[in-house]
Structure formats: C-alpha cells, structure tokens
Amino acid sequence: MLKLDNFSLFFFCFLLSFSCFSQTKDELKKQKTELEKEISYTAELLSKTKKNKTKSLNYLKVLKSQIKSKEQLLITLHVEIALINKQIQKTEVSIIDTEEYILKSEENLQNLKDEYAKMIYAAFKQKGSRNDLIFIISSDDFNQAYKRIIYLKQYTKFRENQSHKIIESQQELTVKKEKLVQQKDRLIEESAIKGYLVTSKKDELESVNATKDEKEHLVIKLSKSERLFKKKIQDKQKKSKALDDKLRKIIEEEIRKSREEAKRNDGVNSFGLTPEALALSSEFNNNKGKLPWPLEKGVIVEQYGKQKHAVFSGIETFNNGIDIATDENSVVRVVFDGSISRIFFIKGEGKAILVNHGEYFTVYSGLEEVVVKVGDKVLSKEKLGIVLTQEVENKTELHFEIWKGYDKNDPSKWLYKAY
Predict the structure, then answer these.
(1) Are 400 and 410 in contact (CB under 8 A)?
(2) CA–CA distances in Å: residue 324 to residues 5, 181, 318, 321, 407
(3) Exposed, middle or buried, 40 (CB in 10 Å: 0-12/13-18/19+)?
(4) Final residue before a domain boundary, out of 178, 195, 224
(5) Domain that holds residue 325
(6) Which of 75, 120, 135, 313 suits 114 as a labelling partner, its CA being 20 to 30 A distant?
(7) At residue 397, does pLDDT exceed 80?
C-alpha cells in the first residue's frame, strides 16, 4: 500500500516551506478553512457516487482530488505547528527575560529602600542633636551659611528623589509581574493550540492513508475491466476531438466575421478586432487568475494538458480544458462579459456553449439545459444553463475551456484560486 510516511511528509513540507512560512497565521487559518471545505465537499460528492453499485472511474477521480486536498491540509497543519513552535520558543525566551528583569528590579528596589532607610535613620539621629536653623546661623560667615542652605535643600531633594524612585520602581515591577502572568497564560494557550494541531495532524495523516488505501483497492478492482475502460477512453478521445474540430471551425468563423466587421468600421488591428472587442479582450486578459468559476460549487477532477490515466499507467490522454465535478442540477454561469457565439450538441456529452470575449473564447460543455440563445449579451456570473448528470456513471461534470484565438489556454491559471 502507498502510505504517506514521515519521509513523504517531509518532502511535501520542503516543497512548500518557503511559500508557507511567508504566510501569516491568519492566512494559514483561511487556507486551512478553504481546504477543509473542499475536503467536505468532495466527501459529499463521493457519498453520492457511492450510491452506484459499482464505483466508477469518476469516483476515483474525485477520490484523487480529495487526497490532494488532504495532503495540502496536512502540509498546512505542519507549517502551523512549526509557526506555533516558533511562537512558544519566543514566549519562553520572553518569560525568562522578564523573570531576570524582575529579579534585578527587586534587587535594585531593595537597595533603594535600604539606602532610603539609612538616610532617614541618619536624618533622625542628626535631628536629635542639631536644629537646621541653628545649623545655618552658626555659620562663620554669610558664604558658609549660604552653602549650608544649599546643602539642606539638596539633601531634602535627594530624599524626595529617592522616595520617587522607590515608588516608580515598585510600579514598574508590578507592571512587569502582570506582563509575566500574561506571558505565562499565553504560553499555556499556545501549548494547548499546539496539542490540538498535533492531534489534528495525526488524525489527518491517518485519514490520508485510509483514503489512499481505498484508492489503491479501487485501482486494482477497476484494472480488471481493462477492455471496458480502454473502449471508454477511445470514445472520450473521439468526443474530445469532435469538440476540438467543431470549436476550431466556429472560432475560425468568429475571427473571420470579427475582421470583416472591423474593416467596415475602419478599426482594423493585428487581431482583426473592433475597438470595442479589443477593449473587452484587454479587460479579460487583465483578469487572469481572478475570473469566477463557471460553477458556484465544484472540484477540479481532471486538469488541463497531458494526463496519465488513473488506472492504466501506460495510457496518456490530453485534456483541452478542465473537468469540474459538481452536484446535480448545478447552475453553469459565464465567467466574464461577452456574447453567445454558438450553442451546439456533442453526442453523449450534452450541449455546449461558446462565448465570445473579443480575442478570447470560453467553452462550457456538458450541459443538459441551456437558458441563453445565440447573439445574447451576457454579464459575468450570468446563468447559461444546467449541468448534465450522466445516470449510468452517476457523473455530474462540466468541461470548461479557454481559447485565445486558435490557441488553447489552461483554465486553472485563469480562474480564481484554481491553480
């Protein structure tokens, strides 16, 4: 079985340590909350898929996504523990420094009190044998009398200063002792947080390994149906090619029409776009990494580009976009302002919509119901339709693509926090 041992955990943590340690505690908490939500959501999807008598390849894809989220959560917990350890060490050093300061301050205060006591005692003894007024008028001359007056004033002032120093030292010591109590309370609190995080990390590690065990057993089970899956892969590749060919023809037609319109308006540029379309393209480009998801809830179960098959290691496929697993009857929404260029049908995959954003195009494939029509202007997050649920595989997935002219882009790099 493939287990996430200590070495693997160290390796994961090493990869992300530089970026993670630059994060604040608040950022880590936010990241942890998001990962926990994603894990919870994938658990919901898995629970629904489990209803099917035979766990499908779709189940395996969601399972892999959950493992990825759990491993990321594990790393986040590891970094959080490292940060709290650092904070505990800092607090412990601070406590030692404060205790040393209090000890020194208590010694200084005692010395001040001893000096003040001696001064008062000496003044009391002298008071009995000498009157300050007689001390002044018994001077030999005016200059000596003046010096004795100054001396008595300085002596009185010194006693007052000594008294003030004692009061200030006592107040400062009280503040430091209060601070020490707060530091010790903080240390207890931080130690409790660390204990909770260590327990969470241990539980999550067990959860990751259990999920990996389930994945391995499922892979073994599914690998026995090699002929069936290879046929499904071939069918999917045919559908993917059909969609790709159709999109290329449509995009070619859209670019041709755009150039003709630009010529009519004397606004020809290198992309053959009107100034309006060019402005829309620029705006779309400026939102890279910020675009809303085409679904309100979902998990990416298949990434863009070349993919190794989940079951058969010798087989590779190429994904022109990303596949997002979601709930039944989920609303599909447009990711940016644009206009509906085409609505077409892919056999076995439902309906597809191509939206024009100037130089850019977005594709939404795998819809059961469409609520827009060709030529409609749409605004960001506006409803396009409802995603299709394939009953046989109990699969509810949206296929999403982004094109720039004739070139396909990785949608994960464009959607908010998807990469």
Answers:
(1) no
(2) 30, 52, 16, 10, 21
(3) exposed
(4) 224
(5) 240-413
(6) 135
(7) yes
